[in-house]
Amino acid sequence: MISPELNFNVFTSDLSHDFKNQVKVGLFGSGVGLSVVLGFSAAYACYYLISVAKKPILIAGGKKFHQFLRGKCPVVSETYYPTFWCWESRVQTLLRPFVTAKPWVNYRNELITAPDGGQISLDWFDNDESASHPDQSTRPTVLLLPGLTGTSRESYILHMVQQSRDLGYRCVVFNNRGVSGEKLLTPRTYCAANTEDLEVVIEHVQRTIDKAPLMAAGVSMGGMMLANYLGRKGSEVRLKGVVVFSAGWDVFECTASLEKPLDRFLFNSYLTSCLQASVDRHRTILEKKYDIDHVMKAKTIREFDERFTSVMFGYPSNDDYYRDASPIHKIKSVQVPMLCLNAADDVFSPNHAFPVEAVKQNPNVALLITCHGGHIGFLEGLWPRQSTYMDRVFRQFTKAVSLNDLKYEKKKNWSNY
Questions:
Q1: Is the pLDDT of residue 89 over 70?
Q2: Which residues participate in catalysis according to the annotation?
Q3: Is the pTM of this model over 0.85?
């Protein structure tokens, strides 16, 4: 007689065998399922390698500057491989703040006074442990300008500080008025067109470290402000080199792009609410001069600028403000080496508004365009926690400019480099 225990073991063994066969037949029956999976994977890999991963386009106004970038910054010639599972523009833009790590940075805060009595917050990373530049008086320094509502704690700023630390450089972050927790002392904030606060900051930093070479990097609106400053000051600028990321070159085209239904839903409304929150935080002092209740009813960035920004800075109309805020009109006057990185799929800065012709006419300016990358995205690698393509551009360019500082001082202009 066969024992019940043996019968049960045989039964469960047969059941397990049948189940495995059913799963195998159901999922990969006759190899069809496996073939579909492999075929899809191969097709996606081909599409990615042919249409997504591409070398960036480098446009430079001067042959010497072009050669300098090709020779000293290999990243401008290398294929950019966006993260294969999130290369689309909006996905890159939305995911970067969440997937990239935030390196710990211990800042030293300094509040300086502007001519109108307002205060500006600077966050210094002194890097006193620098082995390559132990003399703090001559340590290369990078001034960083965050985006529209950004501060020194944004992930993209922290990564640039980390890159600078590895190079042995010092960093100082210019926080726009009222965004980093400091009290607003006067009824004034900031905008892309007005560079008065930036001029105060640069003069202060240069007085503080007068023997150290000073470079600058601006992101999004910070890049727009920086480019506008360079265009206005021309040959008066003492910066050794500038790199600009994801700048909006024509504000009219930028706002029009962000007002398209999907982009308005994903970005415009959110950024408008962030701007309104900043205004509401300083309502006590701002409502002395402006109709804050009216400002708080704005639904888009354009409406916010019409009701607040253009009024604050004395423009006859919002169109006048947008025209003055657009760096595309000032590229021709830039007199220091400036590298600009933009992604062709950036909905914040549409590619048809890139200043290609203006760049071609200025030997001091270069424009690097990637096929993908979104707005301040540029994610790469399987799991993009660490540095991005943008970080590599920042590191290589600032290092190259710093090492070639004496040549720049001697020649004064990249057209004669």
A1: yes
A2: 220, 346, 375
A3: yes
